[in-house]
Amino acid sequence: MAKENIVIGGLYAQNYIQAGAPLKDNPRMRFRLSKLFEKVASHRREDAWEFGNLVEAELGLPVLRSGVEGRYFPYEEVANSVEIVDLLHIVTLLYRFSRTNKRYNKIANVRSEIQRIFDECNVGYILDEKGGIHPKFDEEFENVRVTTIRKLNSPEFATERQHVETAERALLLNPLDGKTAIKNIFEAVENLFKQMFPKAPQMNKSNLQNNLKPAIEKLFSGNRNHNTRRSSLKLVEALIDWADGVHEFRHASGTNEPLQPPEELTVLLVSQGLSYLRWLAELKVQTDDIS
Fold first, then answer.
1. pLDDT of amino acid 251
2. How many angstroms separate the CA atoms of 35 and 75, rounded?
3. Does the pLDDT of residue 16 top 80, yes or no?
4. CA-to-CA dists, residue 65 to 47, 74, 206, 222, angstroms
5. What percent of the chain has pLDDT over 90?
6. Dist. CA 9–CA 124, nearest whole Å
7. What is the mean predicted confidence (pLDDT) over 46-72?
8. Residues in a beta bridge with 125
9. Closest listed residue to residue 152, CA positions, set 269, 241, 15, 280
10. Cβ of 74: how many Cβ atoms within 10 Å?
11. SS3 state at 65
12. Element (DSSP H or E) covering residue 252
């Protein structure tokens, strides 16, 4: 299970992976990463031995081999043979290794090199500022995901964050699990809505109209806020339509299991849900301030 909070710079499995979950992979990515390992921690010096010791100590994964000149780290062999999640962990450790040892400061672009490999091999991962790896679809989706996670970075939004993290794990399966991703984003939005309006048993059309609309009317009252109020009320109608569309992929008791949605629709619905989640979180802060 993922931790309650996404840890910037944390190992991939600690943030996202459930037992048995397959991940996106690419043999060229593996080969290119092995070459980057060699560039950062060359076999011709003791760098590879130090890096290998770090990997073994942190992951419990034996990577060093014995040779005529002592212990060494066969990068290409390891990169091609380990499970993909272990390879992602080694990448995070490589970034840490490059940043903490003064001898490697000359390779200042190691983060951009790793990201370039991910992008050019189309594997759907992104490296954060501390070397942690996260899911990535496109720049717009990533911007929405990052800003939403930041908006939810307080204890009161812990449940919403857990749903978002479960959705992210579902998006990384190969093939991705769109139904689980959509279901959890909806539950994140609905849970936040019920936080704002405890007397509303669920987030549906009537409850949105009877609770969220009056709150917006109160929050943006007065002529000065006329345009903001009108635009926000239209967003409530858009949220109603989004929730109706999402219900098509949520399995209800007594109904047939829906088919998996296509990836492009999944990403769109999840991205929209993240935007509504961020919007509601901001509205909650504002309405709490005036209540």
1. 58
2. 8
3. no
4. 14, 7, 65, 73
5. 46
6. 17
7. 88
8. 135
9. 280
10. 17
11. strand
12. none
Token couple for 138: 């496109």
Measured CA to CA, the distance from residue 81 to residue 226 in angstroms comes to 61
Q: What is the DSSP letter of 1?
A: -
Report d(CA 246, CA 270) in Å as an integer: 9
d(CA 11, CA 93): 8
Crossing angle (nearest 10°) for helices 158-171 and 139-151: 160
Whether pLDDT at 138 is above 80: no
Q: Tally Cβ neighbours within 10 Å of residue 124.
A: 19
Q: At 56, which helix (H) or strand (E)?
A: helix 47-59
Q: What letters, b where the CB count within 10 A reaches 16 and e where it falls short, cover 230-244? A: eebeebbeebbebbe
- Summarize the confidence of residues 81-85 as an average pLDDT: 90
- Specify the pTM: 0.60
Specify the pLDDT at position 290.
47
